[in-house]
Write a structure and sequence with these properties.
The protein has ten helices and nine strands. By secondary structure, it is α/β, with parallel strands linked by helices. The longest helix has 21 residues.
């Protein structure tokens, strides 16, 4: 995995040289974030360069692939877990948990989470929303691989009720909520308007489940931290607005990404 991380960083540096359009998009996103941090007085957050983002993305990509070949015991050597008490407390009432994820860090490491969670005395089932591949053979292969590691996958083909029922049964459902939406709620994200998914808020309203956010930050060569945070949803009490729920989710995602901005995936034109 250490070799993969170093090769990935070299690949990211090369792509930084070769992809001027992507450099422009990353630069635009980092300017928005820098302006937001300045207004909030968050001088302690490390602001990366464009090159840093490319190199870290390459390192996380190839480093993440290495997790596919590991056992849970091996993966634990490269992952630090913080805030597991918040997750255990959220699961205690039996209503399940919604977990907000950002495109951050080596995503493939999260495939190891169901087994790692069991080793940390978290026995709930783990599921995730995903976008199906157009190629059905590839899609079936991907689902089998994920479900073999203990993750149940849901897509739009499963409709609305199956993932909600999974949450109500006491499961943990992960939702990647930071991607740009063609049709979504237009709410603030790092101080700028962004089209945002309303799915986490809709699922929370139907299930009544608590919501946690997760960040995945690089702590050293081939070492990452998974951090859980409980999200305060008091603003949703008595409010049926999708925009309010989407705003709360974006605030939680921004806090997660600020744990390590260089680990964020800033290659899409996120802001309107």
């Amino acid at each position: 995995i250490r070799i993969s991380v170093r090769l990935g960083a070299c690949l990211g540096w090369l792509l930084w040289l070769l992809l001027p359009r992507r450099r422009t998009i990353v630069q635009k996103n980092l300017i928005v974030i820098s302006r937001f941090l300045g207004k909030r007085g968050l001088s302690g957050v490390v602001q990366p360069s464009v090159r840093d983002v490319f190199m870290r993305a390459g390192a996380n990509l190839l480093g993440g692939f290495a997790f596919n070949r590991m056992s849970a015991e091996e993966a634990e050597k490269h992952l630090l877990v913080e805030g597991i008490e918040d997750l255990q407390h959220a699961l205690a009432d039996g209503r399940g948990v919604i977990i907000l994820l950002a495109h951050m860090g080596p995503w493939e490491a999260l495939a190891q989470f169901p087994e790692i969670a069991r080793r940390l005395n978290v026995g709930a089932s783990f599921g995730a929303l995903y976008r199906p591949f157009n190629n059905h053979s590839l899609d079936n292969w991907y689902k089998r691989r994920r479900e073999a590691r203990g993750t149940r996958l849901f897509s739009r083909r499963d409709g609305f009720h199956k993932p909600v029922d999974f949450i109500r049964s006491g499961g943990m459902l992960g939702i990647l909520a930071d991607q740009k939406m063609r049709q979504g709620e237009t709410v603030s994200f790092f101080g700028e308007n962004a089209s945002t998914t309303s799915i986490p808020g809709l699922f929370q309203r139907r299930s009544g489940a608590p919501v946690l956010s997760v960040s995945l930050s690089t702590m050293g060569t081939a070492l990452w931290r998974i951090r859980f945070r409980r999200i305060n949803l008091t603003a949703l009490q008595g409010d049926t607005s999708r925009a309010v729920a989407a705003t709360l989710c974006n605030q939680a995602l921004a806090a997660s990404l600020c744990d390590s901005l260089s680990d964020g995936f800033w290659f899409q034109d996120r802001f309107l």
